[in-house]
């Protein structure tokens, strides 16, 4: 099974006292399988990295489209 995941990082989100580079952005991942979930949480939410292999699109505050 695979599905889509949309992650919204609030504008004030911090990790270890530093503002996340993805704060205020929404990230859309596709073809996500259960085995990907832990890595998505670690890389995207806690490290602020987008996973290129799963990335389908994104949006910033104000409606700007994110592209890799």
Give the SSE map.
Layout: E1 3-9, E2 14-15, E3 18-19, E4 25-32, H1 37-46, E5 55-60, E6 65-66
Antiparallel strand pairs: 1-4, 2-3, 4-5, 5-6
List keywords for this structure.
mainly beta; 40% strand; 68 residues; globular
Written as H for each helix and E for each strand, in order along the chain, the element string is: EEEEHEE
Distance between the termini: 26 Å
Identify the strand order in the major beta sheet.
Answer: 1-4-5-6
Low-confidence stretches: none
Which band does the percent of strand residues land in?
35-45%
Helix % is 10-25%
Largest sheet: 4 strands, antiparallel
Structural class: mainly beta
Mean pLDDT: 96
Number of strands: 6
Shape: globular
Could you describe the 3D structure shown?
- Helices cover 15% and strands 40% of the residues.
- It has 68 residues and is mostly beta strands.
- The strands form two sheets. The protein has a four-stranded antiparallel β-sheet with strand order 1-4-5-6, with no helix packed on it. It has a two-stranded antiparallel ribbon with strand order 2-3.
Quick rundown:
15% of the residues lie in helices and 40% in strands. The protein is mainly beta and 68 residues long.
């Amino acid at each position: 099974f695979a599905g889509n995941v949309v992650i919204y990082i609030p504008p004030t989100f911090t990790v270890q006292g530093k503002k996340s580079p993805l704060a205020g952005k929404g990230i859309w991942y596709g073809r996500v399988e259960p085995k990907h979930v832990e890595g998505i949480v670690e890389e995207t939410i806690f490290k602020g990295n987008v996973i290129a292999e799963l990335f389908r699109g994104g949006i910033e505050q104000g409606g700007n489209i994110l592209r890799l």
